[in-house]
Amino acid sequence: MWPELILKAKRGGLNVIQTYVFWNIHEPEQGKFNFEGPYDLVKFIKTIGENGMFATLRLGPFIQAEWNHGGLPYWLREIPDIIFRSDNAPFKHHMEKFVTKIIDMMKEEKLFASQGGPIILSQIENEYNTVQLAYKNLGVSYIQWAGNMALGLNTGVPWVMCKQKDAPGSVINTCNGRHCGDTFTGPNKPNKPSLWTENWTAQFRVFGDPPSQRSAEDTAFSVARWFSKNGSLVNYYMYHGGTNFDRTAASFVTTRYYDEAPLDEYGLQREPKWGHLKDLHRALNLCKKALLWGKPNVQKLSADVEARFYEQPGTKVCAAFLASNNSKEAETVKFRGQEYYLPARSISILPDCKNVVYNTMTVVSQHNSRNFVKSRKKNKLEWNMYSETIPAQLQVDSSLPKELYNLTKDKTDYVWFTTTINVDRRDMNERKRINPVLRVASLGHAMVAFVNGEFIGSAHGSQIEKSFVLQHSVDLKPGINFVTLLGTLVGLPDSGAYMEHRYAGPRGVSILGLNTGTLDLTSNGWGHQVGLSGETAKLFTKEGGGKVTWTKVQKAGPPVTWYKTHFDAPEGKSPVAVRMTGMNKGMIWINGKSIGRYWMTYVSPLGEPTQSEYHIPRSYLKPTDNLMVIFEEEEANPEKIEILTVNRDTICSYVTEYHPPSVKSWERKNNKFTPAVDNAKPAAHKIIAVQFASFGDPLGTCGDYAVGTCHSPASKQVVEEVIL
Questions:
Q1: Which of 27, 66, 127, 265 is flagged as catalytic?
Q2: What is the CATH T-level fold of the domain 372-386+535-649, as seen in this structure?
Q3: Does 67 have pLDDT greater than 70?
Q4: Which architecture does CATH list for 390-531?
Q5: What range(s) does the Beta-galactosidase beta-sandwich domain occupy (predicted)?
Q6: Residue 116 contacts by C-beta under 8 Å, 6 or more apart in sequence?
Q7: Options 125, 198, 260, 633, the catalytic residue
Q8: Backbone angles phi, psi at 391, to 5 degrees
Q9: Catalytic residue list contains 127
C-alpha cells in the first residue's frame, strides 16, 4: 500500500511524510536485525523520495505511538541494572548503538537532504517532558545526553525533540497537540523555527471506547491558526493510521488505528476531512511568498476578530488571515475597506489580502460515508474447529503464580497457570445452590478460568485500570480439584516512567465459602505453560493445521477453541474486511499472517463493540482458497462471520450562499490571483441514485441526513434531473 498511500497524501497537498522507526520490529532479538519486506525502512524512505516528497525520521527510539512497549524491544528488560529512558549506562549504550545503526544505514544510501535525499528532519526521544520529573536529575542529564549524542551523528539536517522545552543546543523543541497555534510557548531559542510534529486528527481508541471524532473544520482552523502565527511546519498525526497487525498494539489499543484520519484504516479518503484539508493546503500554497518574505502584522478588527497578515513593503506580495475566536456567532468585519463575513470560530484566508479563497468553517469539498458490503462470492463459510487442550496439572515450578510479562517475553499473549486443591467432604456446604467461589485478583489484562476442566468464567481490566478481580461460583468435588487459569495480555505498555517495572497477571487466588473459611491458594504451588499448544503447532498455517484433527462446527464451540475456514478473494479491487459477528475475543490469521486481536464483547458506552470489522490486506490474499484461522478464548459460534468489501461510494455535498468558490478556481499569475478553469476529469464512477436532497436547513451528516424545519419538496426531483 506504500506507493498508493504516499500518492494520496501528495494529492492531498502534503509534501512531507513523517514516520517512526520501530526498534522492537527491527531488532526483536538482541543483535538480530530485520529490515525485510514490510520492515524495509530504506525502501520506504526511497519510495517517499521517488514520489517527490520529503521525509521526517522519528527515531525515538522510544516512540510511544500506542505501539507495543512504546517501540522498545522486550529483551531490554532483561539487561542487568537497566533503567529505561534515564541517565543509565546500560540503556544509553543500547540506545546509542541502535540509533547509530539507523543513521549509518540512511547515510550509506544517501537519504539525508544534506546528501541529496528526502530526509529533512530527524527526531530523538519522544515527549520526554511528560515523565522527566520522575527521574529527577537523571532525567535532566539524560535528555542533554540524548540531544548531544544525536547532534554528534552529523546528519546535516536538524534534530527535533517534541514536547521538550529544554531541548539542548541546536535541537529544536516542537509542539504536539490539537491547537498548538494557541498553546505552544515557542522555540527555546530565537533562531529555531516553530514546528508542530503531531496535530492530532482524532483520538486513538482503546477497547471499550466510543467512536472518536475531530471535525475537518476544527483541524483546518488549527492549521490555519498555526501558519498565521509564524508556524513553519505541521504534521498530521495521523494522516493515515492503518492497522495494528499481529500483536503490535499497546495495552488495550484497538487493532484499527486512527481510523478517523483523512485517510481511513483502509487508505480510503475520508471526506470532507481529506478534501477540506487539501483545499487548505492549496490556499496556504497561494500565500507562500508572503509567508516567506513578508513582514508579520496584527490588526484587531473587533472584540473577537483579528487580522494577521504578511506583507512585503513596496510590492503587491500580501496574504491575510482573518480569524474569529467567537465560538457562538458569525460576524461581519471590515479589513482594508472591504467587508468580510466570518462564520463562528473560523479563519478566512486571503492570499492577496483582498479575495477570500478559503474559510475553515465553510466546507466546499465533497462528503462521503463508508459502506461495508457483503462479498458477492460464496459467503456461507464452512467452519471446522479444534479445541485447545486445557491443562489440568502442569509441573509445579513456583510457589506463587509467576508474572505475565516475564513469562511471555512478548512472544505470545497467553500463559496457562495450574494448581490443585484437596477438598475434604466436611469442607463442602451441604445446602444446595450454595457453592464455593473462586476469586482471582489480577494485575491485568484478562483471564479465563476453569475448574476440573469446566469453564467457570472470565474477566478483564481496562486501559485505565488494568487490574481486575475474577469472582465466580465453582462446583468442587471431595478430593483433588484442578484449578486452571488462562492469563491473557492485550499488549505491553507504551508510556509512562519506569516501564521496565510494569507487571501483569494473577497476584492473589482464593476459594471463598468453604465450611473452614477462605482457602488462600496464592502460595499453593503453581505450574506454568507459556503460549497455547496451537501456537506451538502453528495451527494458523496450512502445514500446522494438518497436524491435528478438525471437526465440523455444528453449534457454538467451547472456550479456547481454534476455528478455520477457506474463502476466495472478494470481487473487485476494493479493500477487504471480516466482520466478527458471533465471536468474543481472540486473534485472526489469514494465510498464516496475523491481522491482529479482535474483541467483540468489550462494548463501548453506546452498547456496541469498539471494533467489529477487521482489515484483511489484499496483498495477503490469493485469488482462491484463502485460509482463515481464528483462536477464540470463550464460547462462540463463527457461522455469522462475514467477508466484506469496503467502499466510500456514498457521497454528499452541502453548500450555502456563504461558501466561497472552490480554492481550485484560483491561481497566481504575475503576483495576481485570477479564476482558473478546473479541467480535472471525474473518477470512473457513475451516480446511480439520489438518496436525499433538501433545499432548506437539512440536519445530520453524510449517510444520515434528515429534513430540517425549512425544506423544498421539489429538491430531490430537481437534483435527480441534473445528475442522473
A1: 127
A2: Jelly Rolls (2.60.120)
A3: yes
A4: Sandwich (2.60)
A5: 307-363
A6: 110
A7: 198
A8: -65, 135
A9: yes
